[in-house]
Amino acid sequence: MKIGNREVDLEYWFTLLTFNMTTRLVASDRCVRDEDAGTELGKRFVEGLKEKFLRSSPSNLCDYVPILRWIDYGRVKKSMVILQKKRDEFLQGLIDQKARTEIDNQVGHRCLLDDSNLSKLPFLQCVINETLRLSSPVPLLLPHYSSEDCIVGGFEVPRGTTLLVNALGLHRDPKVWEEPDKFKPERFEGGREGFKFVPFGIGRRACPGANMGVRAISLALGLLIQCFELEQVREKKSLIIDSKPPLKAEALEVVCIPRKNALELLSQFQN
Q1: Is 227 annotated as a binding residue?
Q2: Where are the domains of the chain?
Q3: Who contacts 262 (Cβ-Cβ below 8 Å, separation ≥6)?
Q4: What is the reported pLDDT for 1?
Q5: How far apart are CA 98 and CA 27, in angstroms?
Q6: Measured between alpha carbons, how far is 111 from 261 in angstroms, rounded to an integer?
Q7: Which CATH number fits domain 98-236: 3.40.50.300, 1.10.490.10, 1.10.630.10, 3.40.190.10?
Q8: What is the pLDDT of residues 88-139, one digit of tens each?
Q9: Average pLDDT over residues 251-271
Q10: Is the pLDDT of residue 15 over 70?
Q11: How far is 113 from 144, CA to CA, in rounded Å?
């Protein structure tokens, strides 16, 4: 298509429109701003998104001849695993941006985030809830006793039976949660999920320190997001936890980069 003497790449502009609409829904911001849309920088960014979300070959022979999956014909499985990792990294960046934008709009950089701001940061709470869902503080809740004979899930439970709630299993149950193994904070935007979400128990015997703990986590995480850009350390270190049997875990190490908007605020706390 030509407008006057200028050619217009409609494929690029429609692709850009689609990605911008998607990221505005997810993170309330465009992936490419107007001033960069027609530049080489904007075009490279869109090409990078196409590589992450659009396969070069939409058809897969393994779908028609399933036995080929055994040998990963065409290395489709391997390439999809790599592609999914890139998508996860991009989507994690959108989540980070959404939380950062919320704090910037509601708190700003003239003062540090405090208790009075937490009620204005619903998405930050969604992030914390989703983290607690995927990584429950304890896998099993404290023991309870059945006060009378009852039937649960087709099983007869006599009175006086010791009952343990598998919180970790409940939080990752595909019958209860959509895509349970994915980090999706937006699933909590409608509020808490009742008996589906019980990281600290529920009812009269819930953890008495739950509110204090969540408040402390909210303040710590909110302050980090407000003041720093966080990047993962390239070489991950492993830790051996002294237990029986010994457990292996990855060390939680990040690089903290002061945000430009927060430099003046942070300078007030230098010795």
Answers
A1: no
A2: 98-236
A3: 109, 226, 227, 228
A4: 46
A5: 5
A6: 11
A7: 1.10.630.10
A8: 777 777 777 788 888 888 998 888 899 899 999 999 999 999 999 998 888 8
A9: 78
A10: yes
A11: 39
Beta bridge partners, 254, equal: 232
153-199 pLDDT, tens digit each = 888 999 989 888 899 899 999 999 999 988 889 889 887 667 889 99
Tell me the helices (H) and strands (E) count for the chain, helix number first: 9, 10
Question: Which residue would you say has higher pLDDT here, 50 or 258?
Answer: 258
Token code pair at residue 91: 């989507």
Instruction: List Cβ<8 Å contacts ≥24 apart for 117-125.
Output: 117/222, 118/215, 118/218, 118/219, 118/222, 121/218, 121/222, 122/189, 123/98, 123/99, 123/185, 123/189, 124/99, 124/218, 124/221, 124/222, 124/225, 125/188, 125/214, 125/218
Q: Left if phi > 0, otherwise alpha if psi is -120 to 50, otherwise beta: which for 4?
A: left
How many angstroms from the chain centroid is the CA of residue 183? 4
Q: Give the separation between CA 247 and CA 241, rounded to whole angstroms.
A: 5
pTM assigned to the model: 0.68
| Segment 188-222, tens digit of pLDDT | 988 766 788 999 988 777 888 888 889 989 999 99
Q: Which residue type occupies 39?
A: T
